[in-house]
Amino acid sequence: MLLSNLQRFKLITSLSPIIITLLLCFSHIVNAAPHQASHKMNQHAPIGVMGDHMHMKGEWMFSYRRMTMTMEDNIQGSDSISNANILNLTNPSYRVIPSKMTTTMDMFGAMYAPSEKVTLMLMVNYLDKEMQSTTYNMMDSSFKGNFSTHVSGLGDTKLSALYSLHKGSENHFHLNLGISIPTGDIDKTDEILMPMSMMGQNLVNKRLPYPMQLGSGTYDLEPGITYNGQSDWLKWGGQIKGVFRLSDNDEGYTLGDQVTASSWASYRVNPWLATAVRL
Known about the structure:
This protein has three helices and 15 strands. By secondary structure, it is mostly beta strands. Strands 1, 2, 5, 6, 7, 8, 9, 12, 13, 14 and 15 form an eleven-stranded antiparallel beta sheet that branches. A two-stranded antiparallel sheet has the order 3-4. The radius of gyration is 22 Å and the shape is elongated.
């Protein structure tokens, strides 16, 4: 199956922005009056950016985010490829072809600042994944049937420390120093409709492909740097973060390293409403 593209999110033709966000914040503030005045609706980056802001000493924040992502169809390189053309491929040949994958992620976060220079962050997520696929007969490539596979469970756990490099009245830089702990399973199985019957059985319980697993199986370093700028009504910023795998996992493979960049801007319409855009 052409799943390496799925793994790298190159199969995304529909990234549903169905992000239902419930953000619960509780703050224990040593010096309440001056700090309360600094809370504004646009003081944080858009909700998809992690580790974008720091907290004052003694402040806590708890968050819950829900995100759904859908990927459809297949590509070869940068071009779309039909099932008929996939069946004509050789070395290797493919008879089980994915058509759609949906991932729902529930993310639970906590942040605490033990000092003005350091904010600690914990992120735990629960994943629910479903992939729809089509199976063709091995000998003549005729249509055999459709099937779906499903997994759910805890994903990898993220621990981070945000360290302030510069904090001015309008500009702020901080380092993101994170590690990913492999708490997500990488050996999930489900019933797959096989191109050839095995011992008279068409549905066989098999290990699912990489994108359907719940974690990386490796300890990963996640360094980054974040910039925030602000004026009375405007806020802007940018972030560069990486994911670097430290070794192979117990199954003998490792996912690829990643480097991502984000930028954003927001405008505070009034004390309780803000708009934002992110690239």
